[in-house]
Amino acid sequence: MPAVHKSSNGASSQFHQSLEGLAENPLRRTWRGTEQGTIELETVPRFDNPYDEREWIKAHMAAALRYWGKLGFGEGAAGHITVRDSVLPDHYWMNPFAVHFSTITKSKLVLVGPDGYVSSHGAQLPINTAGFHIHSAIHKRRPDIKAAGHCHSLDGKAWSAFGRPIDILTQDSCLFYDNLGVYNSFGGIVLAQEEGENIAQALGPKFKTCILQNHGLLTVGNTVDEMVYLFSALDRQCKAQLMVEAAAANGIQKTIINKEDAEFTAKTIQWWENTYVNVSASSFYGFIP
Predict the structure, then answer these.
(1) What CATH code is assigned to 50-281?
(2) Whole-prediction pTM value?
(3) Which residues form the Class II aldolase/adducin N-terminal domain (predicted)?
(4) β pairing state of 12-14 and 4-6
(5) pLDDT for 132-145, tens place per residue?
(6) Can you tell me the distance from the alpha carbon of 233 to that of 166, in angstroms, rounded to the nearest whole number?
(7) Which has the closest alpha carbon to 227: 50, 39, 82, 38?
């Protein structure tokens, strides 16, 4: 928590931190080891062989889907995750249609070709049409990201009914400071290419999270790990906001984090390696085969 100081006239003034003197790498700001530097933090692995990377991607993607299953994010056949393939970069892996998240394994993942149809690689199972329209538009518009995910989690879809972003109310919500789009329309179940493109446009050129009005949440990431952490964090923040709004409606004043402190915090916690480390500290890793 920032320190609160008293000025000479007795009024409270808030101390604001700055990045001056801190490590340039946002991940390195968040942890320390021995003074001699003999401890290192394990982060995203680097691969020389794209086939080895493919197996890593599939293992973490299957774990992400099972993690969603544990969190109760399944809603019938709705919901999908895609991750770019390391061997065929114009293809992406996708979970099969109408298979519960909690039962997904590497062998059930489908590789979708650039034409939008199931390729001969991977599982020979059907995919979600709405998922194809949403994810194909995102992967085309955002070559900077590798993974995208959307499902109908309860708290996320409840807050989506307001068609507005969350407020920056807590340290965790700074993940979404200047990092959250809102698609403030609802064109029905996504069965047309144009609706998928509208959603991708709402995500914009740099945001990694988006609220789809009357629909649910959407997040993207440099890794599937980052994407799934951002999704669950946004869903929890939607729940927190719903609770705060209920209290505020009964006369309790809410406090929104000011722009300077939100921006300072965001410059560290939004870094993609930090979000990767966050999910590695959750129960997510217990689902990796």
Answers:
(1) 3.40.225.10
(2) 0.91
(3) 59-242
(4) antiparallel
(5) 999 999 999 999 99
(6) 12
(7) 82
